[in-house]
Amino acid sequence: MQIFPRQLNYLPLVLAVAAFTAGGAITFVFWFYFSPKNLQVGYAPEQPVPYSHRLHAGELGIDCRYCHANVEQSAYSMVPPTQTCMGCHAVVHPESARLAPVRESWATGDPIEWVRIHQLPDHSYFNHSAHLYGAKAVYEDGSEVRVAVGCTSCHGRIDQMEVVAIAEPIAMGWCLECHRNPGPNLRPVEEITNMAWEPDEEWVSHQEDHARAVNPPEHCNGCHR
Amino acid sequence: MGPRQPPAVHALAHAINEALGAVGRVVGFFPPTDADRQDVLEGIRAFGERAASARTILVLGGNPAYDAPADVDVRALLQRDGVTSIHVASHRNETSELCSLHVSESHELETWGDLRSVAGTLGVQQPLIRPLWGSRSSLEILARVAGERNWRGHYVVRKTFRDAFEERTLFETTWRRALHAGLLAGSRSRPAQVSVDGAKVAAALAAPEPGAEGIEIQFLPDPALYDGRHANNLWALEVPHPMTKIVWDNAALVSKATRNRLGLRNGQMIRISRGGASVELPVWALPGHADDSVTLTLGWGRTAAGRYGNKQRWKGLGPEPDWSAGGFDVHALRTTDAFYFADGATIEATGETYDVVQTQTHGNMEGRPIAIDATVEEYRDNPEWASYETVEMSPGPLWEEGDYSNPPVRPGYPEGGVTAGGRPRYKWGMVIDLSACTGCNACVVACQSENNIPTVGKYEVKRGREMAWMRIDRYFVGESDDDPQIAVQPVSCQHCEEAPCENVCPVNATVHTPDGLNSMAYNRCVGTRYCANNCPYKVRRFNYLDWHSHLDEPWSMHGSFPETRQMVFNPNVTVRMRGVMEKCSYCIQRIQEAKFKARREHRQLRDGDVNVACQSVCATGAIVFGDLNLEGSRASRAAAINRRYKLLAEVGAQPRTTYLGKLRNPNPAFATAPAPSAAEGSH
Amino acid sequence: MAATAYIEELGEKSLLPPGTTFNDVTESVARVTETKAPRGWWMLFLPSVALLGVMVACIGYLLSMGVGVWGNNAPNYWAWDITNFVWWIGIGHAGTLISAILFLFRQNWRTSINRFAEAMTVFAVLCAGIFPALHTGRPWFDYYLFPIPNQMAIWPNFKSPLMWDVFAVSTYLTISVIFWFVGLIPDFATLRDRSKSLLRRRIYGFFALGWRSSHRHWQHYERAYLIFAAISTPLVLSVHSVVSFDFATSVIPGWHTTIFPPYFVAGAVFSGFALVLTLMLITRTVFGMENLITIKHLDLMNKFMLATGMMVGYAYAMEFYIAWYSGNPYESWVFMHNRLGFGMLDSDGNWGPLWWSYWAMVSCNVLAPQIFWFKKMRTNIPVMFIVTIFINIGMWFERFVIIVTSLYRDFIPGSWGPFEATWIDILLYMGTFGLFMTLFLLFIRWIPMIAIAEVKMTLPHAHPHPEDDHHQPAAAAVAPAE
Predict the structure, then answer these.
(1) pLDDT tens-digit profile of C1-59?
(2) pTM for the complete prediction?
(3) ipTM > 0.90, yes or no
(4) Is residue B106 within 8 Å of B131, Cβ to Cβ?
(5) How many structural domains comprise chain C?
(6) CB contact, 8 Å: A35 with chain C?
(7) CA of C202, closest CA in chain A: separation in Å?
(8) Chain B residues within 8 Å of chain A (Cβ atoms)
């Protein structure tokens, strides 16, 4: 004898389809919304001083390395000390209200508390100099060129950012995409700070040679110690 | 011979050196640098006498209240009425507790100073960091008290140098050069011309004083704590004693015969009495120790060493029992007339037992070819005897990319494991020479310091959870129980090319790098521990609990540390949380940093660019690390020496670490010539 | 139709007492779920729930403090945790063998015990699953073992036996649950139709999935059952073989042996039957099922245990022989010193300190079941009860011996280290019994513990036309001669 209405016969089917769809949806939600692409990209915290890269690096054309001087020598690109700022701002806009924190830092010796934007977890060890030193690529005809990764490849068009935001999901999978196929992300070492650089056909045709030169690690110890 | 031996023995040693022709070639005699230096024991006695009537006592560093000989009662001296005692020391200790004032002294690494070597070379001690706690060095305090206008360490040292250095011109240059080199070039004294007075030697040896009846006591500084100054240092507490492998305590070392005569087992307490004083500590039989003699190590049993070093009872975690640690103070038996050796002591059992913990409980190789040795004759007969005892398996890799003897190649890359520059890939390997290794534990501690390895406490060591990546296995070999020989073998991750651990990790936390390292990605490790089970060398270490906070905050799930504790960590190495497996990484952080440096300089790594931690501290150079593919590198040359063998080669893991067998050269004239550890029946 | 005698296959005739009717079967089994639980049930249930609480507390302690609360150390990185895992998984194999393999072999006597055994399989696998999930140092990252899309762009390691375990055990659990449930559908319908209250009707009706006992339903049921039996049969052999690979693929002497897959499977069936019997002996008496689970059933199960016990004994002997024959000093050492104890003494003249666990294993697993050679013993209930308990203890020791005696003294003497269990080891293991018994007692109380429909199928009334049954090829061939 039956106690449930006949339509309930479809219940298992409905439940199965719903479970499947829900499973897929939850997986997708986790996969997308919890991915670094979603969580990290666009993070643009407010800094103690309204420093504009668009003005300094873009309009004025100051090279990245003027301030981030360590980037080719060490793991860290360093944030410049107040001394670097005062190098210009002692005479450029010396009375500007927006530069007051800088002058105060200079006077007291307390560093400006910049908010760190690009930060990897403690178990990942990233070395800037390894990406910028300029590996020697040798072409078939014997000519050599030094290749490196440009600043914009990882940090985006900083020269167009009023407030620096994370442009790329600095996540392991994203790093591996390049490590597994570095060719498209390499440029001549002279052009690493050239924000507007685009490769030409000639350059693209030699991507394999460039990749072979940098030989990036794909094994765990490349970044994890 | 060291300061411990009596003059007669020194005389004999000088005579032997002269007979060997060593004087002037290997042994040099230099005029004393400190002309009015006093005999140490004389000095202690004199202090005892003068201090009895002094009103102010200034103690510069040290810990005399703890380690002074028993016949000079420093404790009483410091505590008398009307006495102002000032202790200048970097740590609070027993002396500070008794003194009226304690002045913070800067640590050695924070201070300026100077020193003169035995040969007379003048050296400069330079600080690495500014004093963390606003302290002053003894030098500065004395300079200040002495009324120097410029009393800061830098000026004082510089002034001393200026005075010592006659040429006033060029001083700045010389001073800067001395700072750069750490010593003043050319300040070495000229060796004195000496010869041995045979008659005096004979006379000294002619009438040795017979020792008193009874047990002889030998006082030794502890291999880890020294005189007790490192008692609060967790690394020192947990580094095992080189011979007994005891941790967190000391014991009275005797011979097996002596212990058996007393009817005791290892760990049972004995009372050693001499001249009215007595100490109680656990007995421990060390094979090869002399009969009727007991070795006592100093530095233990402290009461004001600090949180870790004090003799105390620790609370067990949860349902676990409490445990005692901190050793036993033996200074009551030590007097100025029996400073290094004492005789006429008696031993009796007290009936109690103490829990003595070792890191290694089994000291016999059971006939296995582990720490392989041979006599020189056997070596001459068969120079490759070691590799005959462990037959190396080379079955060939199961998978193409697993062939790390011939490192893997990426499609499009040059064949045969060659880099774009046309040279072979790096092939990291290590060679450990058992003939050079003394088992001193320097590599163990260096590794611990370099890699942020935690200490776990005595109870956890007892349960078998010590974390040292490098361990030194100590085996007793030989046929005679009374005269065993020691074989020591440092064992760390062998970085096998066919690593049993890599296959079985379900999450790929441990994989092989193209240059031959077995890498461990801590952040990926889930902690199934199959890798450790599968390791035939058992070199993997698991963080069973949160070791970094275990001793301080056992119940916290994630301890918090003061900044000074965090500063101890090497920032280039991940600090592991609980549940993560770790092991020797061939100092990957040093390899990486060297690689980065080399790339910046547009060159390949050269031999000597990478110095792993254990290698850099080994005093005898027993550990050699380097690129086996590099022609002429130290490591590749060492790995080709005929004494070579691979540990457990027959398992087929193809380790990258090569051992060089130990050679023994016993004198056939000695009564019991030691037999080598022949691995009969195994192949 | 010629009345030619046809060959009687074993198990064809029902083992139930003659005169048992369909109603007898239904009543005996359904009554348990419809009446109040006897006091004995409560006397077992309350302590079981308490033990379950102990288990939860132990798990909480384990998760908050770390694996260090157990006795595991270096070199014994696995000890009670994996012993318990393998023990529980092994227990589950009896149910699958009874359900699937005996079904394919048309052993109709299985119908009295299969529901019971399958339920135990499901609960045992649940208890087993706790251990691999929680024995990891960082259990919150267990999802790393699954090949799901991740931001790190890396796969887990399929070369690892632990990965194979993940798939084997999850497959086993899934198939066992579904198989068990499919078999339950007609019985839930029976209970639904007998229900007096609306709530009962609704609940049992929900799980009965609208079973009408129509021909079509029975056809689907039979086909599904057959398919599941076919799928489960290889699982009986493969799951524990895969679990044995955890050890067999290692290099450690004592683990590195090819005999493990058959040895483990035999051992699993052995221990599974033992626990099934232990619980069945109590249940059938307490709930009055002696007519459905007869002495003949118990006799057959004891024969199974004797057979698998002998296989296990053979494996022990063969391991020894090979350890000696191989001439491998490490292998011989593990057997002679670590296990046997007195076979090789260490340099201090001592037996291997864990020799007692090996001898416990041998006496419980090899000696104890030998008593089943005697029919009198095979049909004696108290004897059976005691022997099955010994067998389970012995099988626990077998896994302990395999794991710990191989690890604690392996290749390099400098790495040797003893193992000592902690309270948490013991309490957690006991706690899993609490989980198991809680689920099991709830099963007995609310779900028909014997497969009503299947038992009925074995009764003579279910085959009113035996000559139409399909196993008479010989008779059919002979018949035309008439």
Answers:
(1) 444 444 455 556 678 888 888 998 999 899 999 999 989 899 999 999 999 999 999 99
(2) 0.91
(3) yes
(4) yes
(5) 1
(6) yes
(7) 7
(8) 412-413, 419-420, 509, 511-514, 517, 519-524, 572-575, 585, 588-589, 592, 595-596, 599-600, 602
